[in-house]
UniProtKB/TrEMBL annotation:
Belongs to the inorganic phosphate transporter (PiT) (TC 2.A.20) family. Sodium-phosphate symporter. This is Phosphate transporter. It comes from Porphyridium purpureum. It holds the Pfam family PHO4. Keywords: Membrane, Phosphate transport, Transmembrane, Transmembrane helix, Transport.
């Protein structure tokens, strides 16, 4: 014989009937904050590594810019990807009667994501936080309901397709930006140096196009995110602001900005071949001295010191030794996404050793004028990073919070801006505590990426990631960066021979293995946690069923439905249990 008890409840605000849920939310708060900190410590270097390496920005300036623009991206467009992570991977309708297990699975997904990314980084494996969190969320859905627990299409299917398409699309964008500059004015000035003044004017127009495209796409995505019905107003605002900034750059702003970079010594020839080698020698000394306990770094220091003692006239002859030292120094450091990105294209020293044509270096005066463009593209990529990667940490947190808030799995979650802000703070804390050193080290290792190549790769990455963010698809910023670097590199003379295909295959292998490993890790963690908490969820207030009953209820599974609109909770249980406790 069964007894049914019906009583009214309020939507969750810390009341006693929902207290058993609070530990899940508390643990998820900690896990997602640490996950955000790990992204800030490692992944932000994707955006500003080239700018720091080329001395366009100091490390402090890069961190300040990252703080501003990552926050801008996460608070304006970041909610789209968070929705997908929370509701677009598992078949949430299957959890309608057991929302407690949905919250538990999201919590374990956040924990397993942090554990795997930290472990893989310690092993110097280039893994993606995005792939990890998607695999982790799939893990508990498969355990609970098998294949039917996953939203295969359009959910997971679209995400997997985007993982293949996003690096490819980024490469195409990057190649387009690079080839446009190359055939428009870079190669013409290289062939006829008397056309330098003409080339400098064309570069101003080129950067005007870059400014226009960057602002109009960003403003379109932001305005349509908040009101997709006001088409005319959104397009008018976006086009008007982008046009005004572009005209301002062409007419006046380029003068004081280029003057500023010229004063800092960044315009006027710092990409001369001999000076590139000499500058890398100095920076190798800095990297090596900061790793004095590392034997390989010590070897790099010795090689760099020997190179530095050579006369300036023989600097070019020392390029193979310098490149070798750089390779040793880079290998001695723990994996960072940007170190992988920058190594996808072979170094000049490696190319010369194989008798291949070195990477193209255009007229130093013209090439160096892209210093401002590097800063623009870095900030633009930081916005894209905030818009997409914030969903990796905030998506699970929002899913847990709203499930607790309404005592059910919410089918159409609303943006939780406090969660976006909270996880953004985690990213920023990780950046300032640990990312400063990472950014400095990585920047010193990628100085041979010239400004136009860095600009093209970063713009391509930003465009691809922002498009994915607006659609709500979680993609890997690191993988898009790889596609951008390869896309620009393939546009070089004999570019296909300059790709480090062996490393690229390893990176692709990690892309495939990461979600599978994360899936297995979270499946195991979910099974353990589910077994230890069975029956602990919807405990009725003692005033309803009598003192002592709630302890006995912990031995049983039962469900309770309710949300912001339905305030009635019904429990059915063996009547003898209630009698025994009276």
């Amino acid at each position: 014989m069964e007894t049914t008890i019906t009583y009214n409840i309020d939507s969750f605000s810390g009341t006693t009937q929902m207290q058993p849920w609070q530990w899940i939310f508390a643990i998820c708060l900690i896990a997602t904050f640490l996950q955000g900190a790990s992204m800030g410590a490692n992944d932000v270097a994707n955006c500003f590594g080239t700018s720091v390496g080329a001395k366009v920005l100091t490390v402090t300036q890069a961190c300040i810019a990252a703080t501003i623009f990552i926050t801008l991206g996460s608070m304006t467009i970041g909610s789209q990807v968070a929705k997908t992570v929370g509701k677009g991977i598992v078949n949430y309708t299957m959890f309608a009667d057991i929302p407690q297990l949905f919250a538990l699975g999201m919590m374990t997904a956040a924990i397993s994501t942090g554990l795997w990314v930290s472990f893989a980084t310690w092993l110097s494996m280039p893994v993606s936080t995005t792939h990890t969190v998607v695999g982790s969320v799939m893990g508990f859905g498969l355990v609970q309901f098998g294949g039917s627990g996953i939203d295969w299409w359009p959910g997971v299917g679209k995400i997997v397709i985007s993982w293949v398409a996003s690096p490819t699309v980024t490469g195409l964008f990057s190649a387009a930006f690079y080839l446009a500059a190359k055939h428009w004015f870079l190669r013409k000035v290289q062939q006829d140096e008397s056309r330098l003044d003409w080339g400098l004017r064309q570069q101003i127009y080129y950067m005007g196009i870059v400014v226009f495209l960057a602002f109009i796409t960003l403003l379109i995505f932001v305005t349509f995110t908040y009101d997709d019905d006001a088409v005319g107003m959104n397009l008018g605002i976006s086009f008007g602001v982008a046009t005004a900034l572009t005209v301002g750059w062409i007419v006046y702003l380029h003068k004081p900005i280029n003057a500023y970079y010229a004063k800092r010594g960044l315009i006027g020839g710092f990409h001369d071949k001999d000076e590139v080698v000499a500058k890398d020698v100095d920076e190798l000394n800095e990297v090596s001295s900061s790793s004095e306990h590392d034997e390989e770094a010590a070897a790099a220091s010795a090689a760099a010191s020997a190179a530095a003692s050579a006369p300036a006239a023989s600097a070019a002859a020392m390029a193979p030794a310098v490149g070798s030292a750089a390779a040793v120094s880079g290998a001695s450091q723990r994996s960072n996404a940007m170190s992988v990105v920058s190594s996808v294209m072979r170094s000049d020293a490696d190319l010369r050793a194989d008798g291949l044509v070195p990477n193209d270096i255009w007229h130093p005066e013209l090439e160096s004028r892209f210093a401002f463009g590097q800063m623009v593209s870095a900030c633009y990529e930081a916005i894209a990073f905030g818009a997409n990667d914030i969903g990796n940490s905030s998506g699970t947190l929002i899913a847990v919070y709203q499930t607790i808030e309404y005592a059910s799995v919410v089918s159409k979650p609303s943006p939780e801006y406090w969660a976006l802000a909270y996880c953004t703070v985690g990213i920023i804390v990780g950046l300032w505590l640990f990312g400063v050193k990472v950014m400095r080290t990585i920047g010193q290792n990628i100085t041979l990426m010239t400004p136009i190549r860095g600009l093209s790769a970063e713009l391509g990455t930003a465009f691809s990631v922002l498009i994915a963010s607006y659609i709500g698809i979680p993609v890997s910023t690191t993988h898009c960066s790889v596609g951008g670097v390869v896309g620009a590199g393939l546009c070089e003379t004999q570019g296909y021979k300059k790709v480090n295909w062996k490393l690229l295959l390893k990176v692709i292998a990690s892309w495939v293995l990461t979600p599978l490993v994360a899936m297995g890790m979270n499946a195991l963690m979910y099974v353990i946690c589910r077994g230890g908490t069975q029956g602990q969820w919807f405990v009725p207030p003692a005033a309803v069923v009598g003192n002592g009953v709630e302890d006995s209820f912990n031995d049983y599974e039962y469900t309770c439905t309710g949300n912001a609109d339905i305030q009635t909770c019904t429990l059915t249980f063996p009547s003898e249990l209630l009698i025994a406790q009276k």
